[in-house]
C-alpha cells in the first residue's frame, strides 16, 4: 500500500489563541518590506476576538503557514478608521493582512489562500464584497485573485501610499450545490 506523503493541510478560522503565531509570521513578512506591521499583536487579538469568522489560517502538520485577517466595513471606500474598526453591520470585508511564512513563500500559497478565503466569504450571507489596500507592486497579484483597482486609497501609513482594490463576493453561496458551505 502506498501512503499519503503530502503534509496534512487544514484551513480554519483563527481565534485569539492563534494571535502570537499570526503576529510572528506578519512581523517577519512586513518589517523587512515596509518597516511596520499592518496589525500589531493587540490589534490581531482584537479582530480575532470580535470577528474570527472573517479570518482564515492555513495549517500544515498543525503549524500555521499562512493567514488572512479581515473585519466588516460599512462604507464604499476605506478610510483611516478602517485600520482599527470592525463595523458589525457592514456588508464589505476589509482584508487587513495576508501573510505567508517565509519557508512557504513562492509556492502559490498566497493565491490559494485568497481563493479559499473568497469562497469562505461567499458562505457568509451578509458579505457582498471584499476590500483591501496594497502597495503598487502587489496590484498584479490581487488582480489575478479577482480584485479590481478602485484607485488611490485615502489611507496612508507614514510615507507609504496604497491602491484600494475590491472583489465582488455576493454572498449566498450556501444556496448553491457543492459550494462547500
TrEMBL record:
<dbReference type="GO" id="GO:0004059">
    <property type="term" value="F:aralkylamine N-acetyltransferase activity"/>
</dbReference>
<dbReference type="GO" id="GO:0030187">
    <property type="term" value="P:melatonin biosynthetic process"/>
</dbReference>
<dbReference type="InterPro" id="IPR000182">
    <property type="entry name" value="GNAT_dom"/>
</dbReference>
<keyword id="KW-0012">Acyltransferase</keyword>
<dbReference type="GO" id="GO:0009416">
    <property type="term" value="P:response to light stimulus"/>
</dbReference>
<dbReference type="InterPro" id="IPR051635">
    <property type="entry name" value="SNAT-like"/>
</dbReference>
<keyword id="KW-0090">Biological rhythms</keyword>
<dbReference type="GO" id="GO:0005737">
    <property type="term" value="C:cytoplasm"/>
</dbReference>
<protein>
    <recommendedName>
        <fullName>Serotonin N-acetyltransferase</fullName>
        <ecNumber>2.3.1.87</ecNumber>
    </recommendedName>
</protein>
<keyword id="KW-0471">Melatonin biosynthesis</keyword>
<dbReference type="Pfam" id="PF00583">
    <property type="entry name" value="Acetyltransf_1"/>
</dbReference>
<comment type="pathway">
    <text>Aromatic compound metabolism; melatonin biosynthesis; melatonin from serotonin: step 1/2.</text>
</comment>
<dbReference type="InterPro" id="IPR016181">
    <property type="entry name" value="Acyl_CoA_acyltransferase"/>
</dbReference>
<dbReference type="GO" id="GO:0007623">
    <property type="term" value="P:circadian rhythm"/>
</dbReference>
<comment type="similarity">
    <text>Belongs to the acetyltransferase family. AANAT subfamily.</text>
</comment>
<keyword id="KW-0597">Phosphoprotein</keyword>
<feature type="domain" description="N-acetyltransferase">
    <location>
        <begin position="9"/>
        <end position="170"/>
    </location>
</feature>
<keyword id="KW-0808">Transferase</keyword>
<keyword id="KW-0963">Cytoplasm</keyword>
